[in-house]
Every structure is written in C-alpha cells, then in structure tokens.
C-alpha cells in the first residue's frame, strides 16, 4: 500500500501546532497542578487537581517548561497579595513545585510565640472553629486537630489547622529580605515551608509560578484508583469540583 507523504506531513504539522499551542497556554495563561501532600489541609487535599494562572504575577524563566534562562528577572511583574495561595519553585533546587500561602512580604518580621503567629510585632487574630476536625500528616493516619479562622492585616481570612499539642510553638524572628516572600502551609504543624531555611526558606520573586485559582478535579487515592470505576462513588470528590481556592 502506497503511503501518502502529504497525509503524514499534514498530521505532523497538526501535532506540532497543537504542541506549540499547549506550551503557550501552559506557560502564559493557565497550568494544572496536582496536590501530593497534606501541607495545605484542610483547604487543599491530597488528590486535588487545581488550575494556576501564570499571568497573575507576571513571568519569569520558571513560567516555562524546564525553566529556560531566557530572561533574568520577571517581566510584566505584578505584586502578590498577602494571603494568596501560590505555586513556586523551591529555592533549594529551583525545580520542585510547592504550593503554600503567602504570609510575609519583603521587609516583614515574623515569629511564632506560644503557637501564635506574630507579624511585625502584632499577633495574627485567630478564632477557633472546631476541636474535632481531622487532617493527614504525611503517611500518618488522620490526626485530630484544632481548626482556626485566621485573619491577615489586609482582611484575608482562611482556615488553619494546628495539632492539639501545638508541636510548632516558638521560633526565632524571620526577617523577609528584599524581593523575597515568606510562605506557610495551612496545616501548620505538618508543613515544610519558609520556617525551614535549609530546605525552603525565603522565596525570591523570580521563583513565583502562579496563583492557585480553583480545583477542577479531586479524588481520594487512599480509597482506590480513579481507574477503578466501581469505586468512583467513593474515590471522586464531586463536592470539590470547581471549588474556588480561598
């Protein structure tokens, strides 16, 4: 059978165009991410898939696949707001994607004292919501926690989880450097974030990838695989579909 060379060429062109369009959308507009850890519980759960807008804070090399050194600093830069949930590249390797909540802006001073968060010498107000909520922590089974509503100086409210025994109680003072940001996980006693200077620490503005906007799909792998159709009624969290991220 004779192979039509034009047919092959046309299909290769179509695939190439589709790939270019996908790269442009992923780099400049919106990118999906998967939540693999419990550090943002109870607001983001393991198995959540969310969309992140790449244009929210402008663009750096980390906006593109494999972080090519096409420019040194951010272009079309926009400042993030305190309380935003942001995906960023960890300073340790400039490769791994983390998602955390922005708490500290450049020049801010932060510390924990008796498990309370202080920002520039003022305690962040937190109101207890429940003593009977549960979160996960790594491979550990669910842990009973105290959940609070915290309110940042700009009026941003969000839900934060603290272990009953408040395992992270006190810290030294953190002073956020120029052009850097300080991030915390909402699951306060089970999050590797800016408190741990050797692994995450302060995040440079160029490492920001984008703003987490909403969850488009969610499934609980602990119950079963999404490929097991018979367990869809248990594994797929329909109530989290298209949920806006606060």
Structural notes for this entry:
The chain has 246 residues and is mainly β. The chain has one domain: Ribbon (Umud Fragment, subunit A), CATH 2.10.109.10. Helix content is 12%, strand content 36%. The protein is built from two helices and 15 strands. The strands form three sheets. Strands 1, 2, 3, 4, 12, 13, 14 and 15 form an eight-stranded antiparallel sheet that branches. It has a four-stranded antiparallel sheet with strand order 7-6-5-11, with no helix packed on it. Strands 8-9-10 form a three-stranded antiparallel sheet, with no helix packed on it. A hairpin with a 2-residue loop joins strand 5 and strand 6. It is globular. It starts with a helix and ends with a strand.
Describe the structure using short key phrases.
2 helices, Umud Fragment, subunit A, eight-stranded antiparallel β-sheet, 246 residues, mainly beta, globular, four-stranded antiparallel β-sheet, single chain
Succession of helices and strands? HEEEEEEEEEEEEEEHE
Task: Indicate the radius of gyration in whole angstroms.
Answer: 21 Å
Structural class, by secondary structure, is mainly beta
Low-pLDDT regions: none
CATH class: Mainly Beta
Portion in helices:
10-25%
User: Quick check: average pLDDT?
Assistant: 92
The main β sheet shows up as: 8 strands, antiparallel
How is the CATH topology named? Umud Fragment, subunit A
